[in-house]
Design a protein that fits this description.
2 domains, 8 helices, globular
């Protein structure tokens, strides 16, 4: 029987031991953001409990007829600890056995387990968001309040974000390593150079990390210069230094003042598009637009657009626009 490469066996063993942390860390989190709650509200799902701003969220949900969130509504809490233990033990057996056949079975288990978990979460979310009290004080005909399975979703005046928490990311890391090992072994069986195969995944990961654009968490982060909370998803700038550090700003004027005072060594600059709110793009690929009707957070009146035509379309009585670099002249 063909054996898994020793490097991947070691990586799998380390990541599986790290899964023990799932007994001490939250597995999933749901965040809610609204103007009346600029700091945000959060729910953390652990292997045996649900914590966070539960009382506040239950108080709000009462008005639209949603059930109160409590641990008793999750029967999964009674057996998840056994599932985690079985996952660790089975994974370590795969590492000790070390054959590609067992690795394939392990990957299949991870895939089916992930699909089952997401399906179960979707089932709960559907019931929670659709099965409403018909006598609720606030009723919006045809409106459902199902939380997102993964990612962002607008629910009335709230923005909801659902994503893995620290414990969940550990399990995802195990799956990533297992499938990367399977991918590696698939190529290795085709008699390719082993050294090259070891280098390719490393270069791929490093290259992917280097290309990651910064994410803006509006309502949760403060501008690096003025320290004001960044609230408007039509405005935002970020610089990445030559050492990889990222600093974010709510307006161009804050970025310019920071550069004048700190003189950082900038490798890349990113902006949030005014004409496509929330989208982040490298500054050099945009044009700026300046107009009195652009109400930027610190009143620079500057927004960033995909093209000059896009700026002109939104502002017929246009003031000025140009390449991003012209702002520093």
């Amino acid at each position: 029987m063909k054996k898994i490469h020793i490097i991947f066996r070691l990586l799998l063993a380390i990541s599986l031991i790290a899964v023990i942390g799932c007994y001490y860390l939250p597995l999933w989190k749901i965040g809610l953001l609204a103007p009346q709650y600029p700091e945000g509200l959060r729910i953390y799902i652990w292997y045996n409990d649900i914590k966070g701003d539960i009382d506040i969220i239950n108080g709000l949900n009462h008005y639209i007829g949603m059930k109160h969130i409590k641990a008793e509504m999750f029967p999964e809490f009674s057996y998840i600890k056994y599932v985690i233990a079985a996952f660790i033990i089975f994974g370590l057996i795969v590492v000790i056995n070390g054959t590609q056949r067992w690795l394939k079975i392990f990957c299949l288990v991870i895939l089916l387990g992930g699909i089952t978990a997401l399906a179960d979460f979707y089932r709960w979310g559907y019931d929670y968001g659709h099965n409403l009290d018909p006598k609720a004080p606030i009723q919006v005909p045809g409106m459902a309040y199902q939380p997102p399975l993964l990612g962002y979703k607008d629910l009335l005046n709230f923005q909801a974000l659902s994503m893995p928490a620290s414990g969940g990311w550990i399990i995802i890391a195990v799956g990533f390593i297992a499938f990367l090992a399977l991918f590696f072994e698939w190529f290795r069986n085709r008699k390719l150079n082993k050294t090259v195969l070891l280098i390719i995944p490393i270069l791929f990961i490093l290259n992917s990390c280097g290309k990651d654009k910064p994410e803006f968490y509006f309502g949760k982060e403060n501008c690096e210069y003025c320290k004001m909370k960044m609230m408007d998803n039509k405005f935002g700038m970020a610089i990445q230094t030559d050492k990889g550090k990222v600093f974010k700003f709510d307006d161009f004027i804050c970025l310019k003042n920071y550069m004048n005072s700190e003189n950082p060594a900038i490798a890349k600059t990113y902006v949030v598009l005014f004409d496509n709110p929330g989208e982040v793009i490298e500054a050099g690929k945009t044009v700026y637009g300046k107009h009195e009707r652009i109400k930027s957070p610190m009143s620079s009146g500057i927004g960033f657009f995909t093209t000059t035509a896009s700026f002109n379309k939104l502002f017929d009585d246009k003031d000025s626009s140009g390449n991003y670099q012209e702002l520093f002249k």
